[in-house]
Design a protein that fits this description.
heterodimer; A: 388 residues; alpha/beta; Rossmann fold; 2 domains; 6-stranded mixed beta sheet; 10 strands; B: 325 residues; 4-stranded antiparallel beta sheet
Chain lengths: 388, 325
């Protein structure tokens, strides 16, 4: 990526692929101490250990990973709820981690967060109006006092709640409605970036879809950029333009949703994808599963070299010695195809783990009489595409 | 037939009135078979399981009707003492949250050995040896060294294995697993489900798998019962239901899973919210959320219509639903 001069950067209208947010070498270590009076540091939990990515305006970057991989810590660092140990978070080219006072406050206004648990992230003693309007107390320049109530009602309307509910309390709402309140609060200050940390994990299946649809609608309406963190891979694929896979504090593979889901080259991504149960009983028998052995190592004691090697079926001596960098693997560097995307593995190779799903939605008209002479094991409905 | 639940009703007395948690549930499981009970929170899937196990909190809960026929006899009239002999030895349960289901101040070895001491009258030493054997069987590495450790010293996946070991200990005929992998990461979830399926095959046990995850169901189940508002709205062999659901609720659940060919489009979402169990809608309880609802759905509670030999659907318009699937 070419270095931009300050002028050039200001001249370029952010929009056509120009990153609105860029993270470089982000690190967060939580010290482990021993002793009461004299605290000695005896180690560190390396929650985030060198993460790089960028986010373009209007884009959704999904971050997936298992518990303890550091994805939530990344979210907290982005909204400045935690201070990074090292690294830069560039918002429109400006390093947020070095800002303070008024400048920091202005940036934070533009990066808002939606939390996972709508039951604990809303103050039970505040009315919905106070919860959604609270950001205006901190950033009064956004809405003059007399205007706030109307704005909160508008926000309720935007997220699909009745504006008359403004005086109700969180316990009077269901889980999905509460998540809508959390989203309305995130929108109050007209942010450009929303960091959503597992926003639908606590919701029932039928309500999840409602909230995902709402997030997508809001994105196109307000040209929002999303960092969408979740462990549900199918939801992440649905909503994301690009996806980063995290393991033990690092991104091990990143690319467009097609590159990651259909052409994964990192063994962890392959294992993760193959482990996801597919809601299709017919896939049960003919799909290959990679079952990983053991658990994720402790982030306080990260394996040398490649951090995935302790669970990797491909691991060799080199993996214990050399840390693989997140870059397009050499064997794919000259190819053009979708396998050519950054993957932190010495032995990256393409492997399709999710059965291709391009078969059209089966449109079975009452089928007993359909083609009795067709072989019984013919692939279902290959020819009846675009029947509508 | 190993287990046959017939027309079961369970209520809870709450501050807001009587919550009708289970309203006439029927299902059955044979030896070696896996029944998946699918439903959202509040659908009554766990309460039914607790009633089968005999671990409902009564009061506030109350079984107001029905039979639970297990190995040929009705469990409901049994005294607690007799029930206790069945529980653990003949049927066992695996809970969602292993950390809060295991006793934090007893070593896992002691908790496993307890099964053999109480039910089989074994000596402490023999029971301990059995505990090690069990831990080996659920593939906990270093079982001999770890048998004296406490639950907090194990990872989530390992704790769930211990829960499975405990349920398997006396080789019961029936296992009820209530969201056994919901709290686990996908890679660990795959390990645990594989282990469970393998042990089930080995011991030819009946398995009731309670879950909300349509993916897990498709992976392991033989047949499915979909629950809504305390009743079964559809039962079917697993292959048929995914191909062509016969109830609009099942259809809605399947459609709300993100699919590849729908990327960039709006996801199908079932409108509205699950009903409040103290005020279940009249007629078909799903009618306020149903895209197909007609006048009859407001007034007449649909029975389970026979769709085919092994399929039932509680929808007045199951034929139309099936046709449009």
């Amino acid at each position: 990526m070419p270095e931009l001069t300050k002028e050039a950067e200001e001249a370029t209208p952010v929009g056509d692929g120009e990153p609105i947010l860029e993270v470089r070498g982000l690190v967060k270590h939580f010290p482990l101490t021993r002793g009461i009076l004299f605290k000695r540091q005896i180690g560190a939990v390396k929650a985030v250990d060198g993460v790089d990515f960028s986010l373009a305006q209007g884009e959704t970057l999904g971050i997936v990973g298992e518990s303890g991989c550091g994805k939530s810590t990344v979210a907290k660092l982005l909204v400045n709820l935690e201070q990074p140990t090292a690294g830069e978070i560039l918002y429109k080219g400006e390093d947020v981690t070095r800002l303070s006072g008024r400048a920091l406050k202005a940036v934070r206004r533009n990066i808002q967060m939606v939390f996972q648990d709508p039951y604990t992230s809303l103050n039970p003693r505040m009315t919905v109006g106070d919860i959604i309007g609270e950001p205006y107390e901190i950033h009064p320049e956004v809405a003059p006092k007399g205007d706030r109530r109307r704005r909160v009602q508008d926000l309720l309307d935007v997220v699909g709640l009745n504006p008359e509910y403004i005086n109700r309390y969180p316990h009077q709402f269901s889980g999905g409605q509460r998540q809508r309140i959390g989203i309305a609060r995130g929108l109050a200050l007209n942010p450009e970036i929303i960091v959503a940390d597992e926003p639908v994990s606590a919701l029932d299946v039928s309500v999840q879809a409602q909230v995902i649809n709402l997030l997508e609608k809001l994105q196109s309406e307000f040209n929002l950029s999303y960092i969408f963190i979740a462990h549900d891979l199918s939801i992440v694929r649905h909503i994301s333009d690009r996806v980063g896979v995290m393991y033990l504090g690092r991104i091990v593979e990143i690319g467009t949703d097609e590159e990651i889901y259909d052409h994964p080259t990192h063994p962890y991504t392959q294992a993760l994808l193959s482990a996801v149960p597919v809601p299709d009983p017919a896939a049960r028998d003919h799909r290959e599963r990679i079952i990983l052995y053991g658990d994720v190592p402790s982030p306080a004691n990260i394996p040398s070299g490649c951090r995935f090697r302790t669970r990797c079926w491909k691991a060799q001596d080199r993996c214990a010695l050399e840390v693989p960098l997140l870059a397009v693997p050499a064997e794919f560097r000259l190819t053009e195809g979708p396998a050519a995307h950054p993957s932190a593995c010495h032995f990256a190779e393409e492997k399709q783990v999710v059965p291709p799903e391009e078969k059209p939605k089966p449109q079975p008209k009452p089928k007993p009489q359909a083609a009795p002479d067709a072989p019984p094991d013919a692939p279902p409905g290959d020819e009846e595409q675009d029947a509508t | 037939m190993l287990l046959d639940v017939r027309d079961l009703y369970v209520e809870f007395r709450t501050r807001d009135g009587i919550a009708k948690a289970v309203n006439g549930v029927n299902y059955s499981v044979s030896a070696g078979e896996t029944l998946a009970v699918l439903g959202e929170s509040g659908s009554g899937k766990s309460v039914t399981a607790q009633a089968i196990m005999g671990i409902l909190d009564m009061p506030p809960g109350k079984i107001t009707g029905g039979e639970i026929i297990f190995q040929g006899r009705d469990l409901l009239p049994l005294k607690e003492e007799e029930r206790r002999k069945v529980r653990g030895a003949e049927m066992a349960m695996i809970f969602q949250d292993a950390l809060s289901s295991l006793n934090p101040v007893l070593s896992v070895g002691d908790q496993l050995a307890e099964m053999f001491i109480v039910h089989r009258g074994m000596s402490k030493k023999d029971a301990r040896a059995k505990a090690v054997e069990l831990m080996d069987r659920v593939r906990i590495p270093g079982a001999r060294e770890r048998v004296g450790q406490y639950p907090h010293q194990f990872s989530g996946g390992m704790r769930q294995r211990i829960m499975i070991a405990m349920a398997m200990a006396l080789e019961p005929a029936l296992i009820i697993a209530d969201e056994p992998t919901t709290a686990l990461d996908v890679t660990v979830q795959a390990q645990v489900m594989e282990l469970l399926a393998e042990l089930q095959r080995e011991l030819n046990m009946g398995l009731i798998l309670i879950t909300h995850d349509l993916g897990v169901v498709a992976d392991v189940a033989d047949k499915i019962a979909v629950m809504y508002a305390g009743r079964i709205v559809e039962t079917a062999p697993v292959h048929e239901i995914y191909k062509a659901p016969a109830h609009p609720y099942t259809r809605g659940l399947l459609d709300s899973i993100p699919r590849l060919d729908q990327k960039g489009q709006e996801l199908y979402a079932i409108k509205g919210l699950p009903p409040n169990l103290t005020a279940i809608p009249s007629g078909c309880p799903f009618h306020p959320r149903c895209p197909r609802a007609q006048d009859i759905c407001h007034t007449d509670d649909p029975p389970l219509f026979r769709v085919s030999e092994e399929r039932r659907s509680a929808c007045h318009f199951w034929k139309e639903t099936l046709r449009d699937a």
